[in-house]
Amino acid sequence: MSTAVIDEAAPAPTPEVIESFTVTVIIRRFDPEVDEQPKWVDYDVEMFATDRILDALHKIKWEQDGSLTFRRSCAHGICGSDAMRINGRNRLACKTLIKDLDISKPIYVEAIKGLPLEKDLIVDMDPFFESFREVQPFLIPSSKPGAGKERIQSVADRARFDDTTKCILCAACTSSCPIFWTDGQYFGPAAIVNAHRFIFDSRDDAAKVRLDILNDQEGVWRCRTTFNCTDACPRGIQVTQAIAEVKQAIMRGKP
Amino acid sequence: MWSWVLHRITGVAIFFFLLVHILDTALVRVSPEAYNAVIGTYQTPIMGLGEVALVGAIVFHAFNGLRIILIDFWSKGTKYQKVMFYVVIALWVITMLGFTPRHLINVFSH
Amino acid sequence: MSQTLDAPRTPVRPARKKGVNWEKWGWIYMRVSGVVLVVLIFGHLFMNLMVGDGVSAIDFAFVGGKWASPFWQWWDVAMLWLALIHGGNGMRTLVNDYARGPKLRAAFKVAILASVAILILLGTLVVFTFDPCPVGQPADLLPSFCAA
Amino acid sequence: MTQDPSDSTIIDGVHYHQFDIVIVGAGGAGMRAAIEAGPGARTAVISKLYPTRSHTGAAQGGMAAALANVEEDSWEWHTFDTVKGGDYLVDQDAAEILAKEAIDAVIDLENMGLPFNRTPEGKIDQRRFGGHTSDHGKAPVRRACYAADRTGHMILQTLFQNCVRLGINFFNEFYVLDVIMSDVDGVEQPAGVVAYELSTGELHVFHSKAIIFATGGFGKIFKTTSNAHTLTGDGVGIIWRKKLPLEDMEFFQFHPTGLAGLGILLTEGARGEGAILRNASGERFMERYAPTIKDLAPRDIVARCMVKEVAEGRGAGPNKDYVYLDCTHLGAEVLETKLPDITEFARTYLGVDPVTEPVPVMPTAHYAMGGIPTNVKAEVLRDNTTVVPGLYAAGECACVSVHGSNRLGTNSLLDINVFGKRAGNNAVEYVQTAEFLPLPEDPAKEVRETIEGIRANAGGERIAVLRRELQEQMDMKAQVFRTDESLAEVTETIHQLRDRYRNISVQDKGRRYNTDLLEAVELGFLLDLAEVVVFSARNRKESRGGHMRDDYPDRDDENYMKHTMAYLTGDPLSSDAADHIRLDWKPVVMTRYQPMERKY
Ligand SMILES: Cc1cc2nc3c(=O)[nH]c(=O)nc-3n(C[C@H](O)[C@H](O)[C@H](O)COP(=O)(O)OP(=O)(O)OC[C@H]3O[C@@H](n4cnc5c(N)ncnc54)[C@H](O)[C@@H]3O)c2cc1C
Ligand code: HEM
Ligand code: SF4
Ligand code: F3S
Ligand code: FES
C-alpha cells in the first residue's frame, strides 16, 4: 500500500519551500471617468505570509488589472505614499504584512476617508498639505548663529521634540480622526504634530505664533482625544500626547 | 474611539433628560398634585428600568469624563489611556452593581 | 458619515476675531465643571435614589423638605447651572461637528442657547421662589413641618 | 499646493507656463537648488512625487563633513578618503570642493532647522562610516553628521519646510518626459520641458531659461534594490534620448547590507556603531579581507567579500545564500536610540529582532555613481568639456564625478546639498542675462505621440512581465560579479525585451491618474539605461570600485584610468548596441593624490 511507504520514509526535512496561499482582497474601486459611485471588487491573489499588502496590490495591478490605481514609492514605510484603510484601519500598505491579518476572511482595502476621492485608492492630498503649511512648519529663530556655526542645542532639548520629527506626512492620522471626517475644517492631527515639532524646538522663537494659529475654532480644541490618530500612525508617534502638549502650551501661553 | 462614541451618546442622552427633568421639577411651583402626578410616573417599573439606564449613562459619562480630564492634564495620561478606560469600565460595573439591585428593590417593592 | 467632503480645509468660517477665545475657555469649562459635577450629581443621585426608599420616596413633600434648607437649594442651583451650561456647550460641539451649512448650524445653536437659558432661568426661579407650604393645599401632600 | 501661475495659457489642450528656472525633481538635490533659486528668479519645481515622498527620505546613516566636533579631522583627509574610496576614478578638483563645502552644507542645514543628534556639549554629533578615516587611512574617524538613522528623512523634511517658508512653486505629480531643445546657431540648447500631469493626463510645456535636472537614481533596473519603485531614471533617460552623453554608467554601487531577499537597506551606520558581519560559522570574515578597518571597509569591497563567502559555501540560512549582520552586542539602548528605524525594519519585514538575533543580509543595488556628466558648476556637458548653456544637473542623476567608481557612505547626502546648492546659484546667475529661446511649433508633439502610441497599442505584452525579466537578468548577470559572457547574455535579453516592448499594451486607457501608462513609459527609460550600463560595463575590462569583472579581477590603471562617456548615435532600436551607442573616454582630473593600491 502506498501509505505504508510514506510511513516508513525517513522524516522529511523541514520544508524549505515556504507555502503560499490564496488571499481574497476586496478593493473599493472608483474610476471618476466611468463610475457614479465607488464599488467593491474582489481579487484572488497567491501570497506568502511575509508579503505585504502592497505586494498584493502590485500583483493585482501587474497580473490581473492594470487599471488599479494607488500611490507608492519607497515600499518600506518611509515615504508616506500609501496610507489606506485596510480592514477598516488606516495603515501603510507597505508596512502591513499578510501574516498579521486574518486571511481566513477577505481583506478589505479602500482609500483613506475624509479627503476627496480621486480614483481607486488615491485621494486629493492638497487640502492635507494646506493645513500643514498653515501652521508655519519651519524654523523661525529670532537670532542668528555665528557665521559658519551651528546653533547649540543640548541633548535633552533635542530629545524634547524627537517624537514629532518622525512624521512622514502620510495622513493616516488625520484621515482616521472622526472629527476630521465630519468636519474637514479641523486642522487635523498631522498639522498639529508638525507644529509641535517646532513649538518645542529650543532653537525656535515663534511658538507663540503657532500656538495662536492652533488656538482657533478649528485648532487643537476640536480634538476629543479619540486616539484614532495615535493608533493609526505608522511611525509610532504619540500623536494625542503631542496634541495634549500643545493644548497645555496654549494654556500656559508658552511651550 | 469607542470610549468617545459612548461619551458622546451618553452626554447627549443626559442633556435631553436634564431638559425634561427641570421641566418636571418646575411643576412643584404649579401645585403639589401636579408634581406628584408626574413624579409618580418615575416610580413605575418601566421608568425604573429607564432610570437604571440613565444612571448608567451618567456614571459612565462621569467616570470617562474624569479619564478625559486626566488625559488632558496628567502628563502620563495619554500613556495610560487604555488602562484608564478599563478602569472606567470596572468602576462603572462596580457602581452599577451597587446601585441597580437597591434601586430595583425600591421600585418593585412599592 | 460621508466619505468625503466637498472642500476640506477651506476656511468657510472666518478666522477668529480678537477677543475672548471661547473655544479655549469652553474647553477648560467642560473640564472644571465636569469635576464639580461629579460631586454634585453623585450627591444628588445618592440622596434621591439610594437613601431611604429611593425613587419611590420622592414626592412634593420630599422636595419641599430638601429645599427648605439653603444648603440643598444652592446645591441644586449650582448643579442646574453647571450641568446645563456644560451640556449646552457639549451640544454646541456636536452641532459644530455634524451640522452642515451655516444656516442649519446657527439654527441649532440658537435652539440650544434658548433652551439652556430658559431652563436655567426657570429652574433658578423655581428653587428660590419655592414655597414648601403653599396655602390651600391638602396637608398630607406637604412636608411635615408645614403643620407646625 | 500646485499653483498655476496666472500666465499659464492653454493652446490645443496643452498648458503653457513660463519660468526663469525649472527644476525637475523635488528630492534633496532639487529642493536644495530651489532654496537658492526661488528667491533669485521665477522658479518652478516639477516632481512626479509629492516632494516629501522622494527617496532622499530613505537615506539613513548620515552626511559627511569634517566638522571635527568629536575628534580631529580635516577636509583634506575627507578628500583623500573620497578619492581612494572611489578607486581613484574621482575627479579630484570636484572631490576637494565636496569636502571643503561639506562643512557649510551641514551648517546650512542645521541653521535651516535640521534636528541633528547632539554631543554632550550641544554640538552636532558625528559617527563613523565606511571608508572615512583620519590622516589618510590610519584609523576610522567620526565624520558622519546624523539624526538617528533618519538623516535623509530629516534632510528631506527640512528642505521641504524651507521651500514652504519661501513659497516655492511646486508642480506635484507632474512627470517630466522631455526636454525641449531649440537650435541656436546650429547648437541645440534647452528651452524648456514637457510634463504629463498625473491627475488629468494633460500635457504642460514649461518654457524656461534654465533647467536643473535632479531626478535621482535608477536602481529599478535591478530586482534586489534599496531604491524606490519610482526610481526609474527618467531624467537620465531623457538626457540620453536627446543624444547628450552619459558618464561612467557601468559603476553601480551594491550596498552590503540589504535585508536578505528584500533589498531594504540597513545603514552602514550600524557597522559604524560597531555591528559585525559574520558568516554561517559565526566568523568575522572581514578580518581576513581588510585587517585594518574590517567591517568598515568601503562598500564595494565588503559587498564583494560577502558574495565570495556565499559563493564559497560559507553562507547562512536554509539555502546558504546570505550572511549575518550581528548587532546583538550593541545592546537595546544603542539600537533603540541610534538605529531605531532599521531595528524596526528587521522586526517588521523579517521578523528578526536585532537586539537578540543576527540579521540576514545580502548586497542590494543602491546607488548610481554614473549619470549626466557635469562640471563642478553643475553645468551639463555635451562632450568632455563643452557646456550645454542653461542645462544643469545635480544629485544622484548627475556625475560630477565626486564618487568615481565607488561612492563612500554619507557622501551622497553631501553631494545633493553641495551640488544642489551650486546648481541653484549658477542657474540664477545664468538667467540674469539669458533670454528665453523660441519654442518650436508644437513642443509637446513627441511626448503626445509616445503617450498616445502606448495608449493605443494593442499588443499582448505586459509591462510587469518585461520589467521583471529585465530586473532578474540584471541581478543575475550584471550585479556584483560580471563577466564578458554574462554581460553579453544580458545585452541580448535587453534587445529582446526592447522588441517586445513595442508590443506592450496598457489596460488603463483613461486619462485621470493613469499610473499604468506611466509605468510603461518608465519601463522604456529602464530598458535604455540598462543597455547603457551593460554596454559600458562590457567595455571596461578591469575591476574597479563598484564594477567587478570576474574575468578581469584586477584594476588596470594603464588602460582604464579614465571615465567612460557613452553617446547615443543611431536608432536606439537597432538590434546591435554597437550600432547606436558610441563609447569614448574622458580623462580623470588628478590634483594631489596619485593612484595607489587600495588596501584597508
Ligand atoms: C535606502 C537608502 C539609504 C541611503 N543612505 C544614505 C546615507 O546614509 N548617506 C548618504 O549620503 N546617502 C545615502 N543614500 C543615497 C542618497 O540618499 C541618494 O543618492 C540621494 O538622496 C539622491 O537624492 P536626489 O535628490 O538626487 O534624488 P531623489 O531624492 O531620489 O529625488 C528624485 C526626485 O526626482 C523626481 N523625479 C524623478 N523622475 C521624474 C520625472 N520624470 N519628472 C519629474 N520628477 C521626477 C522625483 O519625484 C523625486 O522628487 C541612500 C540611498 C538609499 C536608497
Ligand atoms: C458627572 C459629571 C460629568 C463629567 C465629569 C463630565 C465630563 C465631561 C467632559 C470632560 C467632557 C468633554 C469631552 C471632550 O471634550 O472630549 C464632556 C462632554 C459632554 N458632556 Fe459631560 N460631564 C459630566 C456631566 C454631564 C452632564 C450632566 C451632561 C448633560 C447635561 C453632560 C453632557 C455632555 C455633553 C453633551 C458633552 C459633549 C460630548 C462630546 O462633545 O462628545 N455631561 N463631559
Ligand atoms: S503623525 Fe504619523 S500618521 Fe500622521 S502624518 Fe505623521 S507619520 Fe502619518
Ligand atoms: S483622532 Fe482626532 S480627536 Fe484627537 S486624538 Fe486624534 S485628533
Ligand atoms: S510606499 Fe513609501 S510608505 Fe509605503
TrEMBL record, chain A:
<dbReference type="GO" id="GO:0051539">
    <property type="term" value="F:4 iron, 4 sulfur cluster binding"/>
</dbReference>
<dbReference type="InterPro" id="IPR025192">
    <property type="entry name" value="Succ_DH/fum_Rdtase_N"/>
</dbReference>
<dbReference type="Pfam" id="PF13085">
    <property type="entry name" value="Fer2_3"/>
</dbReference>
<dbReference type="InterPro" id="IPR036010">
    <property type="entry name" value="2Fe-2S_ferredoxin-like_sf"/>
</dbReference>
<dbReference type="GO" id="GO:0022904">
    <property type="term" value="P:respiratory electron transport chain"/>
</dbReference>
<keyword id="KW-0004">4Fe-4S</keyword>
<keyword id="KW-0411">Iron-sulfur</keyword>
<dbReference type="InterPro" id="IPR009051">
    <property type="entry name" value="Helical_ferredxn"/>
</dbReference>
<dbReference type="GO" id="GO:0006099">
    <property type="term" value="P:tricarboxylic acid cycle"/>
</dbReference>
<keyword id="KW-0479">Metal-binding</keyword>
<feature type="domain" description="2Fe-2S ferredoxin-type">
    <location>
        <begin position="21"/>
        <end position="115"/>
    </location>
</feature>
<dbReference type="Pfam" id="PF13183">
    <property type="entry name" value="Fer4_8"/>
</dbReference>
Automatic annotation (TrEMBL), chain B:
<keyword id="KW-1133">Transmembrane helix</keyword>
<dbReference type="InterPro" id="IPR034804">
    <property type="entry name" value="SQR/QFR_C/D"/>
</dbReference>
<dbReference type="GO" id="GO:0016020">
    <property type="term" value="C:membrane"/>
</dbReference>
<dbReference type="InterPro" id="IPR000701">
    <property type="entry name" value="SuccDH_FuR_B_TM-su"/>
</dbReference>
<dbReference type="InterPro" id="IPR014314">
    <property type="entry name" value="Succ_DH_cytb556"/>
</dbReference>
<keyword id="KW-0408">Iron</keyword>
<dbReference type="GO" id="GO:0006099">
    <property type="term" value="P:tricarboxylic acid cycle"/>
</dbReference>
<feature type="transmembrane region" description="Helical">
    <location>
        <begin position="83"/>
        <end position="100"/>
    </location>
</feature>
<dbReference type="GO" id="GO:0009055">
    <property type="term" value="F:electron transfer activity"/>
</dbReference>
<comment type="similarity">
    <text>Belongs to the cytochrome b560 family.</text>
</comment>
<keyword id="KW-0812">Transmembrane</keyword>
<keyword id="KW-0479">Metal-binding</keyword>
From TrEMBL, chain C:
<keyword id="KW-0812">Transmembrane</keyword>
<dbReference type="GO" id="GO:0016020">
    <property type="term" value="C:membrane"/>
</dbReference>
<feature type="transmembrane region" description="Helical">
    <location>
        <begin position="110"/>
        <end position="130"/>
    </location>
</feature>
<feature type="transmembrane region" description="Helical">
    <location>
        <begin position="71"/>
        <end position="89"/>
    </location>
</feature>
<dbReference type="Pfam" id="PF01127">
    <property type="entry name" value="Sdh_cyt"/>
</dbReference>
<keyword id="KW-1133">Transmembrane helix</keyword>
<protein>
    <submittedName>
        <fullName>Succinate dehydrogenase</fullName>
    </submittedName>
</protein>
<dbReference type="GO" id="GO:0046872">
    <property type="term" value="F:metal ion binding"/>
</dbReference>
<dbReference type="InterPro" id="IPR034804">
    <property type="entry name" value="SQR/QFR_C/D"/>
</dbReference>
<keyword id="KW-0472">Membrane</keyword>
<keyword id="KW-0349">Heme</keyword>
<feature type="transmembrane region" description="Helical">
    <location>
        <begin position="28"/>
        <end position="51"/>
    </location>
</feature>
TrEMBL record, chain D:
<feature type="binding site">
    <location>
        <position position="267"/>
    </location>
    <ligand>
        <name>substrate</name>
    </ligand>
</feature>
<keyword id="KW-0813">Transport</keyword>
<feature type="binding site">
    <location>
        <begin position="25"/>
        <end position="30"/>
    </location>
    <ligand>
        <name>FAD</name>
    </ligand>
</feature>
<keyword id="KW-0816">Tricarboxylic acid cycle</keyword>
<dbReference type="Pfam" id="PF00890">
    <property type="entry name" value="FAD_binding_2"/>
</dbReference>
<dbReference type="InterPro" id="IPR014006">
    <property type="entry name" value="Succ_Dhase_FrdA_Gneg"/>
</dbReference>
<dbReference type="GO" id="GO:0006099">
    <property type="term" value="P:tricarboxylic acid cycle"/>
</dbReference>
<comment type="pathway">
    <text>Carbohydrate metabolism; tricarboxylic acid cycle; fumarate from succinate (bacterial route): step 1/1.</text>
</comment>
<comment type="similarity">
    <text>Belongs to the FAD-dependent oxidoreductase 2 family. FRD/SDH subfamily.</text>
</comment>
<dbReference type="GO" id="GO:0009055">
    <property type="term" value="F:electron transfer activity"/>
</dbReference>
<dbReference type="GO" id="GO:0022900">
    <property type="term" value="P:electron transport chain"/>
</dbReference>
<feature type="binding site">
    <location>
        <position position="396"/>
    </location>
    <ligand>
        <name>FAD</name>
    </ligand>
</feature>
